Amino acid sequence: MSAVLTVPEPAYWQDACKHLMKRDRVMKKLIPRHPDVCLQSRGDAFVTLARSIVGQQISVKAAQSVWDRFESLTRKMTPAQVLKLKVDDMRAAGLSVRKVEYLVDLALHFSDKRVRVNEWPHMDDEAIIAELVAIRGIGRWTAEMFLIFHLMRPNVLPLDDLGLQNGISQAYFSGEPVSRSEIREVAGSWAPFCSVATWYIWRSLDPLPVSY
User: Fold this and answer.
1) What 3-state DSSP class applies to 87?
2) What domains lie within the chain, and their CATH numbers?
3) Quick one: residue 109, left, alpha or beta (phi over 0 = left, psi -120 to 50 = alpha)?
4) pTM of the model
5) Where are the alpha helices (DSSP H) in the chain?
6) pLDDT score, position 212
7) CA of residue 188 relative to chain centroid, distance
8) Over the stretch 10-56, which tens digit does the pLDDT of each residue have?
9) What is the pLDDT of residue 210?
């Protein structure tokens, strides 16, 4: 992953930490272990989603390598620039045929204004997810990561996220596998700051923050 842009912490972050430490015994111990770090956004919706497509089903290191080659094909990573690229050049950068199709569909959705980027700040989470999953190659998990890392929505609970599942298993269930209903039960005390609690659960597994 390339360097994260330095941006202010979300306005709700300190309130969220106080809420979680008061309501949850695990968070009370976990949050103080990770001072001076918080959720950060890259600040570009198209790039964030394009990176998520490039990174599907490959390692973080491999994804960065492919992204760097893909990015070098354009002066600036924009929908219009991607639509000008030749398929052969995109394939030579290391992208599969399917990922090329996904990236072109993503660029078309943005250039044709089939996604209402300017309205997203005023839309609820599920409405945004519905727009995003209409794009080929973007499922619910990717849409939820976008809500957390780009729009910085405070109360997203990504039930299908393996890191969240593993972290809750270790922190709350002594390593036993957890069901979706058990995750929801744990998260009952997190609301309305499930995104923040999820971020700290990820930190319990990997102290280095990841950005998308």
Assistant:
1) helix
2) 13-40+156-205 (1.10.1670.40), 45-149 (1.10.340.30)
3) alpha
4) 0.86
5) 13-23, 25-30, 45-54, 60-71, 79-84, 87-92, 97-111, 125-132, 140-149, 162-172, 180-187, 194-205
6) 60
7) 22
8) 999 999 999 999 999 999 999 999 988 888 887 789 999 999 899 88
9) 65
